[in-house]
Design goal:
about 60% helix, elongated, two-stranded antiparallel sheet, about 550 residues, 7 strands
């Protein structure tokens, strides 16, 4: 397969541009996580290289991201002074992601409700901004949003005006630089270089990154601290889940821009391998980075080579420019991260706050609040559970279980020759809509209305699915009616018949009272009550019409 030179040029330019953007972000994320600037670079190199080579999205650029950094910061704080435990968290993150890919779970992310993702991303964005309060003022960063808010008065009292000035200038650059300039030279890089040079030239007394290793990272083989195994596995799984969502959403963006089609399971294997390598070298875990991927594609990147070049550029920086990064002010990195946090916010849903369904807003706000003030992992779990309950409520509201007889029909004049005014010997109970745990109680409410009827036809064929809660509710109703001497005839399709049999409810009624069509069940019901009538077909049509129009 040929590889045209214009594609090579595009990949080189796209990779270099993405690498230039990745440099300040990797340093900033490393510092923000508490693992150090070098950890950010190590993670960007390891993940960027291996995910590009082995992943399933050809134009995706991977590295540390804001959401992953927040969870990683939790791990660093939880295992303070235990670097081996932190490395093991990252290793498990990669291992879980590889398992997700091997077991073909890449498509599962499509089933996470959008309000959950929106609330989570909004929470992450707010967390990133809140955690920059102290660094923006030249003070030591704190590890949680609540501590950052509570420490605001102390930060104001100890404010370093030089740091505040640098942070303000940095934010002005990253927020206000025109797009035509940012496309040529990324605004975070402009801010990083210009503000660092200014601070160094004027010898401003502000906190800086400090020295970082200038050579390749050492290999770490973490031990297995059994006492902390539960927390390590939980944080590793949380990082894997978050990285999976972040990566596959970015893959969708890359597909829409490149007109390509990614392989989600292969992408997870590549991401997992990259994060495992990051764990072995003491780097930050990461995911597919939307901004870097978009820049890569717009700059001409079309193949995996662009992601490899991005990683090799960062290796060159690590080998040759390490000493220069020591003088970068932390306030400058904080200003860059404020822009990252603001960009993460989900403006698409925020613009629709007044118009969006209330149930979706409740889910989004719940996930947002729990993310910021409680725990990220709990937020996702609560969000998915709450979204499922809301969905069950909506589906249940659309389900109708109706009891009808011929004289209940408003248009019974059509069948007057076949109907007597007092004919309630045959009744039809019809389930229209999903028959599951959210609607099974409706069945129990109808039993009292059926006592005294000679024959009841239960029509389940309009129910698209039936879960075990519905099977048990149906079984209980059938048993009660049979005990009261009511003849019951059941209409089910082949799948429902199988479900009833598998759940042990197939033998409640004799085989001759179980039918596959409503007409045959009504025919048998009329025979069972031995009604004297002239037009049996008209009577069946009347019952069927009353049932369908209820």
């Amino acid at each position: 397969m040929s590889y045209p030179m214009n594609a090579v040029r595009g990949d080189i330019f796209g990779g270099l541009t993405a690498g230039i953007i990745a440099l300040p972000l990797a340093l900033a994320f490393g510092v923000a996580s508490g693992a150090g600037a070098a950890a950010g670079l190590y993670g960007a190199i390891a993940l960027g290289l291996f995910a590009s080579i082995f992943g399933g999205t050809r134009t995706q650029v991977s590295g540390p991201t804001g959401p992953m950094t927040v969870v990683m910061g939790t791990a660093v704080a939880a295992f303070s002074g235990q670097p081996e435990a932190v490395c093991l968290v990252v290793l498990l993150c990669g291992l879980f992601q590889m398992l997700f890919g091997v077991f073909r779970l890449g498509g599962v992310v499509k089933f996470i409700p959008y309000p959950v993702i929106s609330g989570f991303m909004n929470g992450i964005g707010v967390i990133i901004v809140l955690l920059q309060i102290q660094p923006l003022m030249g003070c030591e960063s704190l590890k949680s949003p609540l501590l950052a808010l509570m420490g605001l008065p102390d930060a104001v009292a100890a404010m370093n005006l030089y740091a505040v000035g640098l942070a303000a200038a940095t934010m002005a650059i990253v927020f206000l630089t025109p797009a035509r300039i940012s496309r040529v030279v990324p605004s975070p890089l402009i801010a990083l270089i210009s503000m660092s040079v200014l601070a160094y030239a004027l010898k401003m007394p502000v906190p800086t990154i400090g020295a970082i290793p200038s050579g390749l990272p050492e290999l770490h083989i973490p031990g297995l601290p059994l006492a902390d195994w539960g927390r390590i596995a939980t944080l590793g799984f949380a990082l894997a889940l978050l990285g999976t969502i972040d990566t596959l959403l970015t893959s969708i963006v890359a597909d829409s821009m490149s007109k390509d089609q990614h392989n989600s399971n292969r992408e997870l294997i590549g991401q997992g391998l990259g994060n495992m390598v990051a764990g072995f070298v003491g780097g930050l875990p990461g995911a597919g980075a939307t901004m870097r991927t978009v820049v890569n594609i717009k700059a001409g990147g079309t193949t995996r080579l662009s992601g490899v070049i991005h990683a090799l550029f960062l290796v060159a920086v690590l080998l040759g420019l390490g000493p220069l990064t020591a003088s970068i002010p932390l306030a400058v990195l904080a200003g860059i991260l404020v822009k990252v946090g603001v960009d993460i916010l989900d403006y698409k849903l925020l613009r629709l706050v007044r118009k969006a369904p209330k149930q979706d807003l409740v889910v989004m706000l719940a996930v947002f609040g729990i993310t910021v003030f409680v725990d990220l992992i709990v937020a996702v779990g609560v969000g998915v559970a709450l979204a499922c309950l809301m969905l069950a409520y909506r589906v249940a509201r659309q389900t109708r279980i109706q009891v009808t007889s011929m004289e209940d029909d408003a248009d019974r004049d059509k069948y007057m020759d076949a109907i007597t005014a007092s004919d309630k010997q045959v009744r039809v109970i019809t389930i229209n809509g999903a028959f599951f745990f959210g609607t099974s109680s409706l069945m129990q409410d109808k039993v009292d209305r059926l006592y005294g009827t000679r024959c009841v036809v239960v029509n389940c064929t309009s129910a698209p699915f039936m879960d075990i809660s519905a099977v048990f509710a149906l079984s209980e109703m059938l048993e009660k009616l049979v005990d009261e001497g009511v003849r019951v005839m059941l209409v089910v399709n082949a799948d429902q018949r199988t479900t009833l049999a598998e759940c042990g409810a197939g033998d409640i009624l004799p085989a001759q009272d179980v039918f596959s069509t409503l007409d045959t069940a009504l025919d048998a019901a009329l025979d069972a009550v031995a009604i004297d009538h002239k037009d049996k077909a008209a009577r069946i049509a009347a019952l069927r019409y009353a049932s369908a129009s209820a």
